[in-house]
Amino acid sequence: MHGHFDSQRKYTLAHDRRFAASADHLLFEGVDLTLLPARFGSPLYVYSAPEIRRNIAEIRDAFAEHPATRICYASKACSLLAVLQVVRETGISIEANSANEIRRCLAAGFRGDQIVYNGVVKREEELEFAIAQQLHAINVDSEEELAAIDRISRRLGQTARVCIRVEPNVKADTHEGLMTAYRAKSGIDLADAERVCRAVLDMPRVTLCGLHMHVGDQVPDAQPFGLATRVLVNAARDLETALGIRFSMINVGGGIPTPYRYATDQGGGGPENMQPQIGAAEFARAVLAEVRAWRTDIEVCIEPGRKVVGSAAVLLTTLVNGKSKTLHAEDGSVEGQVLWRMLDAGFNAVPDYKDWYFYVYNASRATQVHDLAVKLGGPLCDGGDWFRHGPLGEQFLLPADSAPGDVVVFLDVGAYQLENQTNYNAQPRSAAVLIDRAGQYRLVRRQERFDDMLRLERDLS
Ligand SMILES: Cc1ncc(COP(=O)(O)O)c(C=O)c1O
């Protein structure tokens, strides 16, 4: 196991498009990561614009066969304005899940007609705002939401374009909470789709554009995407016939996985779906085979989040101290020793610490053998604040000489981590740096200050 982990580290340093080593330090897109925490604070998220562009190019290429594809980046994966701007400059569209997320997209320069809006709860004022922005589509999650859209669009005298989100009843081999097309809270029953679509046709200010679904996140194989798209296409075809209409779009959602354990990694660690078998190409093939067998002229909308930003960020943490503790059995006998190494980032900074596998390296000693088995703890006064999935089960591997002050890096943390951070234990939320192009970087979010934390309690106006 040590060997596999260390071979992968060497392979990554030698071949990964993002990384290299210089003077024992880890470089990310040509930037020496060990220099950044002292300047911008620790823990620190570092995003790569080149990697975001490469990921989007990969998705575009995968869908090249179908020119009428609209890629809508799922902005909840990371909604930093600077990241949204990088995405916008590539020319793709965007997906949002609240009025404020829509506002973030607008602030980053997206137009209303480049935004699709999802969510099971869209408050009245959020719908009002969304309709006024003339979005590309609102994905309707329930009949009651549709009734609200009808009412608000008439009151505003503005047209709302909608897709109806349905549940195709297809399972996916991912974390249970990430399965969203089977027994999920989202969407309506397929059996109700005809009634709901008929209702839209009677609404003077609502335009029915198509159907929507989302199979799940970090889905490791293509089959569920193919199966669910077939269900969606069959439903759309039947509805077109029954209602005498022609849909303008079909939205198959997101879910393209990111490799957290790379294909070249022979070792273990973490849940099954951490080493997915597919990328954008296989996702596209599964979806397009079904859609294009039905219609080649329809807009295919996709909503990838993780695939766009997952591999585009690292988290820099500082090694603060270490200790050795004796493991006692209940009868008092000694089972062994556990080496602990404590970081300044815990689950406040890496919310997926329990479910996810991340490569963790010592960026200050990147070329040294990583063969010392340690448990990694965070700063929170919470018994659960230690990282669960290392290459040796609960244990991680660091160089034996690792010392306080070293910069320890978590790879592939670009999706859903920064976004879900908390300031539990009054830990500040992290700053973020963006590498615009090789070797060139800037601060795009400062670290939270103590004053920021108190503002909601002091400014009660
Ligand atoms: C409706 C919808 N679309 C897109 C996404 C993005 O998924 P992913 O980041 O896995 O591509 C999600 C994530 O939960 C979602 O709920």
Short note summarizing the structure:
With 461 residues, the protein is an alpha/beta fold. It is built from twelve helices and 21 strands.
Structure characterization notes:
The chain is built from twelve helices and 21 strands. It has helices at residues 2-15, 36-40, 49-62, 81-89, 99-107, 124-132, 143-156, 193-201, 223-243, 280-294, 306-309, 450-458; strands at residues 19-22, 25-28, 31-32, 44-48, 69-74, 93-96, 115-117, 137-140, 160-167, 188-189, 206-212, 249-251, 299-302, 313-328, 334-343, 360-362, 372-377, 396-398, 407-410, 431-437, 440-445. It has two domains: 2-47 and 313-458, Lyase, Ornithine Decarboxylase, Chain A, domain 1; 118-304, Alanine racemase (TIM Barrel, Alpha-Beta Barrel), CATH 3.20.20. Helices cover 29% and strands 24% of the residues. It is an alpha/beta fold and 461 residues long. The longest helix has 21 residues, at 223-243. Pyridoxal-5'-phosphate (PLP) is lined by residues 74, 77, 95, 118, 180, 214, 217, 253-256, 303-307.
Task: Give a topology summary.
Blueprint: H1 2-15, E1 19-22, E2 25-28, E3 31-32, H2 36-40, E4 44-48, H3 49-62, E5 69-74, H4 81-89, E6 93-96, H5 99-107, E7 115-117, H6 124-132, E8 137-140, H7 143-156, E9 160-167, E10 188-189, H8 193-201, E11 206-212, H9 223-243, E12 249-251, H10 280-294, E13 299-302, H11 306-309, E14 313-328, E15 334-343, E16 360-362, E17 372-377, E18 396-398, E19 407-410, E20 431-437, E21 440-445, H12 450-458
Parallel strand pairs: 4-20, 5-6, 5-13, 6-7, 7-8, 8-9, 9-10, 9-11, 11-12, 12-13, 15-17
Antiparallel strand pairs: 1-2, 2-3, 4-14, 14-15, 14-19, 16-19, 17-18, 20-21
Helix pairs in contact: 3-10, 6-7, 8-9, 9-10
Bound molecules: pyridoxal-5'-phosphate (PLP).
Pyridoxal-5'-phosphate binds at residues 74, 77, 95, 118, 180, 214, 217, 253-256, 303-307.
